Amino acid sequence: MAVDPTGADVDRVLDEVPDGPIVMLNLLRFAPEGRSSYAEYSRHAKRFVERYGGEVLYAGEGGSPLVAEEGQAWDAVLLVRYPNREAFRRMIADPEYQEITELRTQALSEAVLQPTVPWSFAR
Question: Which Pfam families would you find in this protein's record (predicted)?
Answer without folding.
Answer: DUF1330
